[in-house]
TrEMBL record:
Keywords, alphabetical: Lipoprotein, Repeat, Signal
The organism's place on the tree of life at top rank: Bacteria
Annotated ranges, domain Carbohydrate-binding/sugar hydrolysis: 160-314
Signal peptide: 1-23
Cited Pfam families: Beta_helix
Region (Disordered): 31-63
Protein's UniProt name: Lipoprotein
InterPro entries: Beta_helix, Carb-bd_sugar_hydrolysis-dom, PbH1, Pectin_lyas_fold, Pectin_lyase_fold/virulence, SCF-Subunits/Alg-Epimerases
Cited SUPFAM superfamilies: Pectin lyase-like
Species per Swiss-Prot/TrEMBL record: Streptomyces pilosus
Record has Lipoprotein as a keyword: yes
């Protein structure tokens, strides 16, 4: 996986909320008053898929009532009503017209409320449920199911319009992505379940998504189509996939039992807060943060992830330490404005996952390299991608700015627990790693040899410290062949995990 597993092509298609959150301060360096983690947080997970909040039993004053007995009533009444209209869907199964493009096209400021038992069913005929460019649309208390969006496209907010609010809504059993995202989108207390590709695909063609909030949702069972097996290396799955999102708060969610990764931020994302989530039993990594910048990952419970994909790579003899939190060509960058200028991973509990945290940088992946699988994208530091070529790339500033760097990653005050009998592994599920490959490609690359491996290991301010380890952990540094014990990891020249404690068994 390490040197070759990456994406791919970008996607083609264009509150009444009860949460129990731990107290937290900002990502700007303000002291965090939380105690050191000693056990997994006991806050309840948001079980919104099995226990959805009921919608209004009667139509609100001034709302347009939609009748499930009339096929296409919702789309027709949307067309005939002015912007800002509230629609109340009666109990029952609502259907669109028989054409595959019979989706609802809201007008600006429309609100769609479902009564208890209101379902919008695509009958495996309609591709999309809600589309168009209207801003500030709200969906509440509605179940959306049975739509057949194509690969890389979405069912709700198909065209990634801005300012949508999705609350207390169930989006399940659709193909493609259950939900797309636009700027200022709020997704709260909703169920994204058993969709064919993604629960949500946060991607907007030709634009960056700003101000995204994903809070208190249950995101489970997605990627029923098993797309990574159909298209190996596509990087096109996950409970949620984020692309070019600038500013996201992902908090208080229960992300579990997805086929593949739970949360995956891929390509020029920036300024993420991923906090107080429960990420568990996902087949792949709980979190992948790839070719992106500046994030805080804190207060999360991360357990029993990566058993399927980690074991798959180990069984085929791959020595790459594919971990449950995977930071790939991503780091803190002060020149990219954000609420932090680092990637800080702290005060999390990681329990019985297939390995821990891996910091990785592909020496051959940079702007204009054929090994850059991010479809021709370049870093946020270089606007004219053509400049990333010889001879200019061999010297400052392009030598640094033309590559995504895993740098300024601070991993501290976490609790790492591993019982190999629970994970059912003898080896390779016990790794913490910081490494790169030997640079070889292309022949004009200025990063050949061990340059990148030396930089990520010793020169880019990547630090573990003040953590608690329980179990038989090993450590990988520089390259996959350097597997270290605790003493080697803490000693020269690596000097990692100062102030950390190590125990074979949990003493509380």
């Amino acid at each position: 996986m390490g040197g070759t597993w990456r994406r791919r092509a970008a996607p083609a298609a264009p509150l009444a909320l009860a949460l129990v959150l731990l107290a937290a301060t900002g990502c700007d360096g303000t002291p965090d008053a939380r105690p050191e983690p000693t056990a997994a947080p006991s806050a309840p997970v948001p079980r919104v898929c099995d226990r959805p909040a009921p919608g209004p039993a009667k139509a609100p004053a001034g709302a347009v009532t939609v009748d499930p007995a009339v096929t296409g009533d919702l789309a027709a009444k949307t067309r005939s009503s002015p912007p800002g209209t509230t629609f109340w869907l009666r109990p029952g199964t609502h259907r669109l017209g028989p054409d595959r493009y019979a989706q609802v096209v809201p007008k600006e400021g429309n609100t769609y409320l479902g009564a208890p038992g209101a379902v919008l069913d695509g009958r495996t005929t309609n591709q999309y449920a809600f589309g168009g460019a209207a801003r500030d649309v709200t969906l509440r208390h509605l179940t959306v199911r049975g739509f057949v969006a194509p690969h890389d496209e979405g069912v709700v907010n198909h065209d990634s319009a801005d300012g949508w609010v999705i609350e207390h809504t169930t989006i399940r059993n659709n193909t493609g992505a259950g939900l797309m995202a636009g700027a200022r989108q709020r997704v709260r207390a909703s169920c994204l379940r058993d969709n064919g590709q993604y629960g949500m695909n946060a991607y907007k063609a030709g634009d960056r998504i700003t101000g995204l909030v994903v809070e208190g949702n249950e995101i489970t069972g997605n990627n029923t189509g098993d797309w990574e097996r159909k298209r190996p290396g596509c990087g096109c799955t996950g409970g949620i996939k984020f692309w070019a999102v600038d500013g996201a708060d992902v908090r208080g969610n229960w992300v579990h039992d997805n086929r593949g990764a739970g949360l995956w931020a891929d390509t020029n994302n920036n300024d993420f807060r991923i906090e107080d989530n429960v990420l568990e039993a996902n087949d792949g990594a709980a979190l992948i943060y790839e070719t992106s910048y500046n994030a805080v990952v804190r207060g999360n419970t991360i357990r029993r992830n990566n058993w399927v994909e980690g074991r798959r790579y180990a069984d085929r003899g791959d020595t790459f330490p594919f971990a449950t939190v995977y930071v790939s060509e991503s780091g803190g960058e002060p020149r990219v404005p954000a609420r932090t200028d680092r990637i800080e991973i702290h005060r999390n509990v990681l329990e019985d996952n297939w390995s821990g945290i891996t910091l990785w940088e592909n020496a051959d992946r940079f702007c204009n390299s054929p090994a850059n699988t991010s479809s021709g994208d370049c870093t946020l530091l270089v606007k004219d991608t053509a400049r990333c070529a010889q001879p200019g790339i061999a010297a400052a500033p392009l030598h640094s700015d033309c590559r995504w760097k895993t740098q300024r990653v601070d991993i501290h005050h976490n609790r790492f627990l591993l019982d190999k009998s629970v994970v059912d592994c003898a080896d390779r599920c016990d790794r913490m790693a910081v490494l790169a490959n030997y640079g070889t490609y292309p022949d004009w690359s200025p990063y050949q040899g061990e340059r990148v491996a030396e930089a990520i290991t010793h020169g880019q301010d990547n630090r573990w410290h003040d953590n608690v380890y329980v179990g038989a952990w090993k450590f990988v540094a520089h390259d996959p062949s350097r597997v270290l014990d605790r003493g080697q990891w803490q000693g020269a020249p690596y000097r990692q995990d100062a102030g950390s404690t190590f125990r074979t068994r949990d003493g509380g």
